[in-house]
Amino acid sequence: MYEIKDKVFLVTGGASGIGAGIVRTVLEHGAKHVVALDIDVIQGKSLEKELNDKHGKNRAKFVECDITTQLQNAFDIATKEYGYIDVVINNAGIMNDSPSVYEKEIAVNVTALITSTLKAFEWMRKDRGGKGGTIINISSIVGLMQTPLLPIYSATKSAVLQFSNCFGMEPHFKSFGVRVVTVCFGSTDTSLLDPQKVGGFIKDIDENIMIGIKKLPLQSVQSAIEGLLTAYINGNSGSTWLVTSNRPAEEITENVKNAYKTLSQGVL
Predict the structure, then answer these.
(1) Residue at 212 is within a domain
(2) Residue 95, φ and ψ in degrees, nearest 5
(3) What is the pLDDT of residues 141-161, one digit of tens each?
(4) Domain span holding position 245
(5) Active site residues
(6) How many CB atoms are closer than 10 A to CB 28?
(7) DSSP string, 210-248
(8) Membrane spanning segments where (predicted)?
(9) Residue 139 maps to which CATH number?
């Protein structure tokens, strides 16, 4: 069992949607401080004021941050302000495969997530003087299935799943004391599903993408947050959790391991 109380959290994509919900909820559960990283200054500053007015001065801090280029500065600000980061939640994401956006999608969903994980790891690792900590990386149900829609987005979430599972494996956790947990969200009622933000690799399939998305059970932001916190409190390093359809969080670590056992048949 891992505690929320008195921990310092950092959340990417923390100004709106699931990220803002996480920021609010961990403070309500007794987190000592929380840092929200986002490019949306208006919503970020508004959230910071709301939470400090409610919970006390300097409990929440917003840092304007494009995570593809400014992560080091954001981590420096957070650690200078609060001294330590106990939990990093890599929540920021883009779902748009269009030719003008897909490179940014990969940069945000994969490269920045890996960079943030490595920076958090270097800060937390016990063999270099850190106190340990937790990193939660957000994958998706499309990292667990195959679909002709949004192949680039699906690839980024598959990459998150594989990276996080392997990084969090027991030899690493035992040596360094940094726990890595993967959460696969189902379709969630946020602006990520706004038709203006979603795009296909060719324009002709945009309509099919939205039709496909609308067929998926839609969960509330609160349900997603509750599932993530269940994974945080209970998850072992290297574990994977499914949070979808307004159901309680379900650990699917063995499903993922068994799937890779099947995929690896004949490899060695």
Answers:
(1) yes
(2) -125, 80
(3) 999 999 998 999 999 999 999
(4) 8-264
(5) 153
(6) 12
(7) HHHHHHSPPBPHHHHHHHHHHHHHHPPTT-EEEE-TTPP
(8) none
(9) 3.40.50.720
